[in-house]
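User: I'm putting together a teaching handout on how sequence relates to shape, and I'd like one worked example. Could you take Transcriptional regulator, TetR family from Janibacter indicus, show the sequence you're using, and then write out its predicted structure as tokens right after it?

Assistant: Happy to. First the sequence, then the structure tokens directly below it.
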Amino acid sequence: MTESATTRAGSRRSAIITAAQRLAVDCGYAGFTVEDLARAVGVSRRTLFNHVSSKEEAVLGLLPVLTDEQAATLRSGGPTGHLVDDVLTVVLDCLHADDGTPADFEQLHDVSERNPELFVRVKTHVEELGEQLVTHLSARDDADDSRSRMALAIVGGIVQHSVVQCIATPSLGPLSDRARANLTTAREILADPA
């Protein structure tokens, strides 16, 4: 596929996700069909399924996944050699944190608020991803199951708070920058002897 064809495909996929999320907020997830979505985007059903595998994927986009390479890097003690930094780096990479805008996060938040069944689906997926992370982190020399779960809890809280900040104050910058700044703040708080 040429670069311009890849760009067009990415643009079409983005338009599908945007339209699906708008429909999910306006009509509810059960309130529109794949045919309604195809009409909203101006494509055929077949073309729609060339870009997304399901109605759910159209609304949620691709849910974060841990790649084999990321898993191997975590097991070997990387990518930075510091447990919490490694978890944050991999989680942000899984979330494609540098690709999303505050408007994207806000739209997904609105979709979840309007469609509890999708929120449950995302929550379940994130919990499964967390268990995968713990499994791979626990194989490290510097982490057992308990330390891995604590590192994941710390990072989860930081990422959640960072998303809220990005939605409320887009000028704070991208999610990855905000999360790293919040990790620094968390370290300062934990180091405070008072």
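A couple of points you could highlight for students: The mean pLDDT is 91. The two ends are 59 Å apart (CA to CA).
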